[in-house]
Amino acid sequence: MNTETTSFVSGLPIASVERETGLSKDTLRVWERRYGFPTPERDANGERLYAPTQVQRLTQIKRLMDRGYRPGKLLALDDVALIALDEARPGALVTPNVLQLDTWMRLVKTHDSEALQRQFYRELAKRGLAGFVQDIVAPLIVRVGEAWSRNELGVFEEHLFSQHLEKMFRTVLANMSPQRGSPRVLLTTLSGEEHTLGLLMVEALMVVEDVYPVLLGPQTPIDEILRAAQLKQVDAVCLSFSSAYSSTLAAQGLRDLRQMLPAGIELWAGGYGVKAIRKTIDGVCLMPEFQDLYDGLAKWRTEHGRRSA
Amino acid sequence: MNTETTSFVSGLPIASVERETGLSKDTLRVWERRYGFPTPERDANGERLYAPTQVQRLTQIKRLMDRGYRPGKLLALDDVALIALDEARPGALVTPNVLQLDTWMRLVKTHDSEALQRQFYRELAKRGLAGFVQDIVAPLIVRVGEAWSRNELGVFEEHLFSQHLEKMFRTVLANMSPQRGSPRVLLTTLSGEEHTLGLLMVEALMVVEDVYPVLLGPQTPIDEILRAAQLKQVDAVCLSFSSAYSSTLAAQGLRDLRQMLPAGIELWAGGYGVKAIRKTIDGVCLMPEFQDLYDGLAKWRTEHGRRSA
DNA sequence: TTCATTTATTGTCCAGGACAAAGTGTTGAC
DNA sequence: GTCAACACTTTGTCCTGGACAATAAATGAA
Q1: Of the candidates A145, A46, A266, A111, which has an alpha carbon nearest to the alpha carbon of residue B229?
Q2: Predicted TM-score (pTM) of this structure
């Protein structure tokens, strides 16, 4: 039904490839110039047309880059070596009960929505919210991220998984939400960090701990965080960083924000991404582990007098 | 530790302006060349630095363009004329009850979370889900978007509003979700479109209409949409585009996807963003209005025989 | 080891030319 | 007067190839 009008060259224009791979047009062109890959055809007007195979390979390369490899190496490799790298394990994961997580992973891989949803609620009832978040959800998110970057899992399965988790969190939280506790904590991420699940996990833990969370969603510019913190009169601002976020950028952002934030408002940073931050930052509390969050809360409460747990 | 070295020129680099305004770097540069606006400073390295005032004006211009004006005219105008245009109502938005929307906007502006949440549920109960979505939520999202780009509203208020809406949708949907109806429709957006609210609105309408929605969340690459469509055996794929998404890119993406998608699976595109697409695309059903969705569903049902409404 | 300095890598920016798609205006047939 | 066909204008995207700063890697000193 389609396109007998198209000549025999066919493929995606550069804008589509940018959208699909997340590599900017500039990058695509400069790779071609420097490394001789990709090698798009040209249409009648001299514009690039990328073969689907090459687009696929570009996605693969992008994924490997997220795992830490550098383009110079990757673009020199042939297909065989590339796939070999893809298989290579990055370093043992720190999950406690691997067996059970494997069961979960199977559900994710077969995108069995109903079973996944059922399992979520069963496990939630069994462990309670805090235990469920720490022992199941958090490790599972790590596993899914790893599996994705290892190409064992498609974007589709990963999205479906996120949607189910999000749905579950929001349902559970909706029934507990109207809290009046303290401290009041602002929850968001810096621009560029789009992962919401970290925020939802923290919100869940906070609601249980009788904290009043103000959820802003992801990607709030720094000056708006500042404004929100003052208008909503929060006691602390808590940012979440996924492992994908550059640790340099994270540290810089935290410094910037700390500088502008009134001294009376604490600044906390959590998530897998803060593990990569080496140096402590003055006036910023780094919380790579869940336990750190509890410690931080306890500390705040003792410092601010009469407030129970 | 940073930057007493910064000179007295300051402003946003071109990449930030692209993100803020939605105008591509190429467009920004070509406007400067052709129309003499904007007129960014340069940093030590000769790179553009846009003054916040100009960025604001660019956002304003972008919004007017979305309303149908052409850049050639807009860029020739001075501030006064621009603001005059801005005040002028565009073909009177189709909101039935402007008065009530104003009340809502006041709640958004004062970020009164509790009142907003209460109002949501009250109005939902009064109008039913479909009526609520069409008469309140959709116009309100447009209003908030407009107010934001007119700088009457901060990012913070906009985020808070989105979070409340999302929470509400997910709560409501959680209680109705396990559906087995047909057709089965895959819901997602293309990479680059991050707005989720459109998807949630459509999901809500579909659940009421006894459709089985598969929600993938935003930003799925085309080949993954394809894979999901086949694995989940859907009858149609429905994409949502916000007004921020470039209509050229949207059209291109739809063409790309249509080409790869089996003929048996329909392709629908909804949201404010498709209004800007002029030409029809072969095999793609453009649904700028909610009514179009109902029509599309009805059409599908008559074509596929015995299935009630 | 650990830290500081040099060197290599890599993404983004720039200029300015070109062109096609979309919009606008004009003409003439009915 | 309406409408279709045509020419002209506007406008966004793509092109090349050069430059440079930010980051990572490698090297040397304490």
Answers
A1: A111
A2: 0.86
Mean pLDDT, rounded, for B47-70: 88
CA of B101 to C1' of D1 (A): 43
Q: E-strand spans in chain B?
A: 12-13, 41-42, 48-50, 184-188, 212-217, 236-240, 266-270, 284-287
| Averaged pLDDT, B105-111 | 93
Verify whether the Cβ–Cβ distance B178 to A114 is below 8 Å. yes
Dihedral pair phi/psi, residue B284, rounded to 5°: -120, 135
A240 within 8 A of A217, measured Cβ to Cβ: no
Q: Give the pLDDT band of residue A277 (cuts 50, 70, 90).
A: confident
Give the pair of three-digit tokens for residue A36. 């001789």
Q: Do the Cβ atoms of B225 and B234 come closer than 8 Å?
A: no
The better pLDDT of the pair A259, A186 is held by A186
Of A156, A173, A228, the CB nearest to B156: A228
Note the pLDDT tens digit of each residue in A77-124: 887 888 787 776 554 444 456 667 888 899 999 998 889 989 999 999
**Protein CA at A64 to nucleotide C1' at C8, angstroms:** 21
Asked if the Cβ of residue B73 lies within 7 A of any atom of strand D, the reply is: yes
Nearest nucleotide relative to A13: CA against C1': D14
Cβ distance B252 to A16 less than 8 Å, yes or no, reads: yes
**Separation between the CA of B24 and the C1’ of D12 (whole angstroms):** 9
Distance, in Å, from the CA atom of B14 to the CA atom of B26, rounded to the nearest integer, reads 10
Side-chain half-sphere exposure of B35, counting CA atoms within 13 A = 17
B167 and chain A: CB distance < 8 Å anywhere? yes
